[in-house]
TrEMBL record:
Record-listed UDP-N-acetyl-alpha-D-glucosamine binding positions: 93, 305, 327
Source species taxonomy: Bacteria, Bacillati, Actinomycetota, Actinomycetes, Mycobacteriales
Name recorded for this polypeptide: UDP-N-acetylglucosamine 1-carboxyvinyltransferase
Binding annotation for phosphoenolpyruvate: 23-24
Keywords: Cell cycle, Cell division, Cell shape, Cell wall biogenesis/degradation, Cytoplasm, Peptidoglycan synthesis, Transferase
Organism of derivation: Corynebacterium phoceense
Domain Enolpyruvate transferase as annotated: residue spans: 7-406
Biological role: Cell wall formation. Adds enolpyruvyl to UDP-N-acetylglucosamine.
Membership in a protein family: Belongs to the EPSP synthase family. MurA subfamily.
Gene name linked to the record: murA
Amino acid sequence: MKDIFNVTGGARLAGTVKVDGAKNSVLKLMGAALLAEGTTTLTNCPEILDVPLMKKVLEGLGCIVTIDGDRVEITTPAELRSDADFDAVRQFRASVCVLGPLTARCGHAKVALPGGDAIGSRPLDMHQSGLEKLGAVTRIEHGAVVAEAEALRGAKISIDFPSVGATENIITAAVLASGVTILDNAAREPEIVDLCSMLVSMGAKIEGAGTSTITIEGVPSLHPTEHEVIGDRIVAGTWGYAAAMTRGDITVTGIAPRHLHLPLEKLKLAGANVETYENGFRVRMDGRPKAVNYQTLPFPGFPTDLQPMAIGLSTVAEGMTMITENVFESRFRFVDEMLRLGAKATVDGHHVVIRGKEKLSSTHVWSSDIRAGAGLVLAALCADEVSTVHDVFHIDRGYPNFVENLTALGATIERAQEETFY
Ligand code: UD1
């Protein structure tokens, strides 16, 4: 039986919400713990489904992993297994982050081609070519990516696109390579900076994290550490857009606002009053939001993971919006669900044009990925009656206590089981 959310439209969300650690950081940090023998501790970990899934992947490699609230402890043995468990890995994209650490530690890695969200083609060619530059031989074999290396050597690497995952795997392999690696066109996302700061606290030598050129001087070994995961900028941004869509007033804590600079600027252009603090921000929207154009780009551009929220806001904004998706080709599948809610939107290739309406029209909608699911819940809050959002397991993968947080902010939303509605 699958869970659904019944969402009553017409709410005005107001109050304070604290965000937990970033999903897209914690999973990579858990993978990076493979690089050092001993016990690594992570704090501020979010309680989302992908964390126990990652625990299963690491246990399959020989680690002992305990999860206690927001604290995760990973004890990594001297000898790791280098074949990641096929079933565990296939369930979520971030599992591919064990490729770099395993290649560096074991000289061999076999990781099933990961599954995850239905947002478009997600090849691993840049991960493979990066590892090959470091001296590994890679291939795709029986549904898995295999990397083998007698020894990794530092190299000059330039990737075609600032891929987050490829940047991470190259860094986590290069930290134990002999010599210096210079990675050009690296991803600049805050989660890359978080990973590098943890690696530095483990003894790695890395400079330039957060810029397009990252320099890594390999060291013979790393030691375990304790590290606090950065706040989840996508969850935080979701709350900011929720405030604007429901003409509400939400203060978000647990997040560095510089990680959301452009999304918050867009909210200002849409008419919101935005205040930023050292560890959070407040978004208040008094009237109807105005239409603002967006194009998704790697950080510091507008994040593709907030594109569903931008679409949601545009469907109830005054005027016409154009949104261009430049990162994932199939992310506009979500628009079909918005059409069910009465949104006026037309997709043309990687553009969508939206004419905003005063109110959406309640119905049944289906989540296709984590962020689309959250976007549908926000849209349902702007509809006239009660909507049902299906396949909410996607949302549970990325938004801890979503229903509880929404309820505390004044929404009427309940979790139920699907079969009771047929
Ligand atoms: C990560 C995030 C995801 C976010 C995305 C972009 C995690 C678990 N997921 O995904 O939420 O939406 O960054 O910010 O952290 N590509 C290739 N070849 C490669 C690698 C990537 O063609 O070898 C392409 C992808 O198909 C995509 C683009 O590059 O079109 C960006 O992907 P990438 O930055 O690698 O995203 P992920 O790390 O998968």
